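lol forgot to send this yesterday, sorry. struct tokens for the thing we talked abt
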């Protein structure tokens, strides 16, 4: 499994890499612009990302804009809904918020609340069928 980790805080990138290193090859980037660039380059190299963990508050391009950009790119490349990358926004925002929920549906994403705990992260991986095991 290949995972793109986008977060402007080095400690957050490191934490996610540590949690995931046993199950995935992780590429860390520091802002939304880099995330979009890496995503596109990987797509064209056929070494596509299975998952993008996207911080929301980042310089250059925030997580919401980067997410929208990635979904637009996939659409232009003819990626079907079944084959699009799993994108999980990592945020301090309450995922129960109406605006957050609407955004989540529009761009087919999911949310993981900071601080990221290993059990929550791995539950999301299972929910999105990125790991063996029941979605529970
Ligand atoms: Mg941030």
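and heres what i got for the seq, position by position
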């Amino acid at each position: 499994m290949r995972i793109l980790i986008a977060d402007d805080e080095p400690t957050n990138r490191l934490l996610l890499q540590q949690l995931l290193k046993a199950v995935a090859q992780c590429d860390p980037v520091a802002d939304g612009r880099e995330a979009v660039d890496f995503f596109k380059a990987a797509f064209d190299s056929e070494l596509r990302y299975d998952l993008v963990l996207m911080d929301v508050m980042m310089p250059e391009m925030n997580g919401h804009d980067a997410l929208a950009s990635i979904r637009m790119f996939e659409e232009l490349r003819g990626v079907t809904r079944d084959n699009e990358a799993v994108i999980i926004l990592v945020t301090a925002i309450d995922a129960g918020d109406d605006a957050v929920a609407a955004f989540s549906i529009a761009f087919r994403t999911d949310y993981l609340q900071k601080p990221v705990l290993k059990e929550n992260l791995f539950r999301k991986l299972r929910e999105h069928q990125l790991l063996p095991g029941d979605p529970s």
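The CA atoms of residues 87 and 108 lie 8 Å apart. anyway ping me if u want another try
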